[in-house]
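Hi V.,

You were right to ask for the full record rather than a summary. Here it is.
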Amino acid sequence: MGGFAEYENYDALGLAALVRNKEVTPAELLEAAIERVEARNPAINAVTMKLYDFGRQMIADGLPDGPFRGVPLLMKDLTSPVAGVRMTRGSRFFADTPPADTDSEHVKRLKRAGLVIFGRTNTCELGLSLTCEPQLHGPTRNPWDVTRISGGSSGGAAAAVAARMLPIAHASDGFGSIRAPAACCGLVGLKPTRNRNTFAPFAGEGLGGVSTEHAVSLSVRDSASLLDATCGPGPGDPYSASPPARSYLEETGAPPQRLRIAWTAATPNGVPVDAECLRALADTVKLCADLGHHVEERDPVIDGASIVPTFLTLVAANTVVNLANHPTAGHPPREDEVERITWLTAKVGEKITAADYVRATQTAHRLGRQMAAFHAEWDVLLTPGLASPAVKLGWIDMMLDDFDEYWRRVFTFSPFTVWFNLTGQPALMLPIAQSTGGLPLAVQLVGRYGDEATLFRLGAQIESARPWFGRKPAFAA
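Predicted structure:
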């Protein structure tokens, strides 16, 4: 690569420090990112909308003096409207949706942080998958093994960061869509507390409160600093998370405190966990004990059998509404205008009664109270990231004709993530190890509702003890 050849040696805050010290310009960083997209994207299909001139114009107009001033950013093609930029939502039906005429509050905060938007990343249709294989744009491939998934729905974001096109990218998570791609691609992925980041002014919540926005990144500190820049209520929010006691970035450098850490490998839906994922968990358990924490195996007492059915009720009903929201089509999609699972999920949603929806909401709240009781004793719950390394492309297929089989495959692959969308707790995915075949392996740290701070402190401590920044796929080496 020409230009700023050292670009890939830094995380996002590292690049911003170079800009602040006048060692490199925002324009040089943007061109370095563009060069890598042009060279690497054809093989993995992570970036589906190139907005190079948009980014150049942001720089020409003058960037705010935020913590990420000059750092390139890719936006997921789902949620967070950007004024004047189309958002296809990974769907043929929504591909011609006119651009929003204003930024979402989240995008405004990203811009105030000094980030430079220069493209959109691939996502599955309406975010309804844990792989990124939409009919509209085609599959995104994992840079560690291009025959495997990059995760979903933020698979384009994760593949772009793993391929070192940039150090951080926008993502969102409704049932694992930040954490599963982070685990598949060897990245840090935080799902913040429910409504820690606002959906204003376009919505009050996502998918009945289970969805949230944040990012995938190369380092824990980037995730923490970005949350500092974006967190807090927006105008008209129906609820919000309690504000942190101090900045999240400060937490990553805080002296370690002895934590009570529970760990479990028991899946709430009873599916088995791959031996290599269990090995990564066991290694992390030992590491946490070696770091001075109190660590015990302990399974939370929860209604695990209700987790997937509760989520499916919420997502199916919301899919009906989402499909009716095309701003110009004037009609919901015909069967041949959306992918098979999108259609079948909506058909299930049409049969859900108001009482069913209320019961699902109450069940989610009950799960939250059950986990709150667990966290009265335990600071952190440690789980495997996924039940297996990244699976082959085509297995979690949104063109399947069988609704039940599709969702069975989703939660066979990722049994630990949706649990915490329902409870609203923060959960942090860390790329702790690699399989014998060289694929990333991850563990998940889960904190009390509203307590990202503890996750960032522990995450940074684990990162320092077992650094992963130097690991990159041969594709990007």
